[in-house]
């Protein structure tokens, strides 16, 4: 009978708290993927093979009963369906980012367009078949000439009154749909195009356009060009779509926000074209939050691998003594612990955002009217993906040459997640959404008298400075969470007020055009938006610490929360010094605090990464203590108390001695099938290579490694059973 691998899933209070309300759903998903051989990482496939495998994986995932259930909930807009689908995306992204992205394109983007932009009839007609995998879809918004500026798209959908059809056309090269995921396999596309009636555009609208039949043949008038290899996500087939007067029925316009009657009359509940498109885009923003969840998942995976290895590998040490574990090196702890603290902050902040979003959708509130939530999602997308890029780079460096090996996963994660900063909205563009909202909030608050608002802002700021730049107070308090919360609050408020003042001067006083004024403040704008997200993240983290029901877990999380706050202030210490918020002494104390906290948390980190609950089969990396048949020589035992220890070795000794293989956390299934030890015979008569007489029992992996290294030949191996 086929044995299911031990996934090593845990169930402590911390496991549950970090996974949140939907921990059992996440475990169900972990088991489904962790037990499937389909999800063994592969790095040796051609582009076509990689895409085929991804298609099989997508099919498998979308057939899972729990996924079907979620899609059903999405259709019925049941309470918490967003949070539930986002946590599944997080788990899936750790297993394979290509599969996760492709599932997202089909269900969240294409399916989301139908659900959010279509009528109930559209949902009935298209969504059920999508759920049942009768066909797959793609989302075609970006064009060669317009990526971030989607408002400028040029694809046309001209209404033909006589035939009751829309004619979808690509009028020029710039209008070609670009980078469309699933373009080489998908059957239908949600195409954004200018709706033209009697020569007049009503702005961009979304249409369902058939691309290819069930046998994979393109429909007449449709051209799909394969974009081939990318830096990562090569399981996803991205392509260019060109339409040559493709005819679709009038009913294929997703018409919730704008419809065309049979007599050609256009109707929309929203009069202004730009406002109408804003509403359409707003309904699609939950997919930005999905990117934040995916990014967070990969940070958890990268950190788990890097921290486990750092607790296992040794380099350098005091003269004449055992070499130290690399986690003992200050830069190692500084880099890994601060990323771990950020990952925890993102965990609680994105969870908060998803709950707010769920509640709004459940209450039937339109997202367009929830600008602060839209800003939070856009900001979280940008912040989490930039943090992911930086975190995975540090994980790669912290695992040295071993981290460069595909088998150890971090390099692959880096390639796959790099584009997270670009798709679903470029990060710099996303952060401008945040800044616009913060300015709107400021104006609303000081509606009656913006000048008085500025004065009040200055007075509040001055008061802050007086309170916090007093040296004795500062040095005493920098270790308190209250100080850190106040500091990030102060930074956001000062940046907000000073941006209002600068824009006011440039546009109102100097009568400059808004675009130039805005552009000349871009660095300020991005700083403000990140300051806002930092403040929200630290507040959400501290709230989560307060709510944690287990005392021990609470104390542990509190230390990481302090580290996160300290990191935020430390990284902007120049700004705080410029603004006299910190004295040089306080700034030095912040640095010392950052180093002390990082150092003190390195062992606690093992508990946290274990509570991320990543199945061994998905962790996969030999340097993280998971045996791999493809790279047995890369194995380092996992640093948990029950799982063996390093054999002490004096500094300068030539050979590393690893702990016995009985400490292995997970043996890959193909080795488990061997189910026995291997007897090794010597090439030399009656002698083992180690010089001892007689045979020697070796673990299959050890044996295979020795064969690979040429120390013994294949024929020396004897299988005992
Ligand atoms: C792997 C991948 C998959 C994709 N999948 C899809 C898909 O399935 N469907 C789809 O429709 N699209 C898809 N896209 C397209 C993606 O959404 C766009 O690439 C993205 O929106 C950015 O647009 P762009 O590439 O044209 O970059 P640009 O908009 O040209 O941006 C380039 C640079 O200019 C800067 N910039 C642009 N505007 C501003 C501004 N206002 N202020 C300041 N700086 C600015 C940006 O910050 C960036 O640094 C995908 C892209 C990739 C790479």
From TrEMBL:
Chain ranges of the Acyl-CoA oxidase C-alpha1 domain: 282-439
Cofactor(s) in the UniProt record: FAD
Limits of the Acyl-CoA oxidase C-terminal domain: 483-624
Keywords on record: FAD, Flavoprotein, Oxidoreductase
Domain Acyl-CoA oxidase/dehydrogenase middle: 139-246
Gene3D superfamilies hit by this protein: Butyryl-CoA Dehydrogenase, subunit A, domain 2, Butyryl-CoA Dehydrogenase, subunit A, domain 3
Keyword Amino-acid biosynthesis tagged: no
Family: Belongs to the acyl-CoA oxidase family.
Name this protein carries in UniProt: Acyl-coenzyme A oxidase
Origin species: Mesocricetus auratus
Gene: Acoxl
